[in-house]
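Sample entry (296 residues):
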Amino acid sequence: MPRHLKNPRILILITVFFLIFILYISTSNFQSKSIITTNNSDDISYLLAPSSYGYKNFTEFIPGHIPLILSIPHGGHLFPDEIPDRKQNIPGIVKSNDINTQEIGHSLSKRIMQILNGRRPYIVINHLGRSKIDVNRPLKEGVEIETSNETQIVWNDYHSFIRDAIDEVDLRFGRGLLIDIHGHGHPENYIELGYVLSSEILSLSTTVLDNNIEIASESSIRALYTRMKNMISFSELLRGEYTSLGGKLQSLGYDTIPSHTHKFPMPNERYFHGGYSVQRYGSRHNEQVVDAIQIE
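Predicted structure, serialized as tokens:
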């Protein structure tokens, strides 16, 4: 069954809020090393660099101008007959698309461009359907290695584009945010935010979350917390009413996990805590300066 991202319009607005929160409120002297200026704010044509494409145009990289990267792994609309369907029987394997995630990514980019006078986020898109490839899994799980060399190329193209975007954001800004856009079909209808922290970790007390430094270090927003730990606690960054992405969404009436209202999933509730891309590229690895959040 196709899976939907919940409440896409409000996510667009809140993502803009959280980007500003991460990059500007966290430090008073944040500045790009290569800010582009113009005397005519209405003329944005100078900012519009063309997309780059991978093998057979199955992947796309849209260059950006701000330290925000949108990755869209499961919204592909192409299902070429010459590429075999995935046949893996690994537990938890999903082969259906996340509906409208490409459209949401482009809408978010357009809204940001309106706010920032034409400056846009980096976007990395997989255009192949999920029945053909899953770029949000390790290579051996995401493609039919024995029957399709083409999907291996596509998988590598997609992750090379993400790596290129991260390297450029690191070089230009020294920090940034990767948002991995997904959808889900869980009956609770929550917006699920994944920081690579399991349900069990999220259910720990505020005291444990704030005093066990290994928890923050293993999250995909480690770098953000490191910059802000003298201002707010880790639990506030995860689920504070005014200091977290989930808290902001919840305050606007959209049930979100984690947040100040729904701090952690109940034992009978399913929850996606963050897949391959967020685990690989988020700042849980000490050398990484780009934080990552999975949004479902």
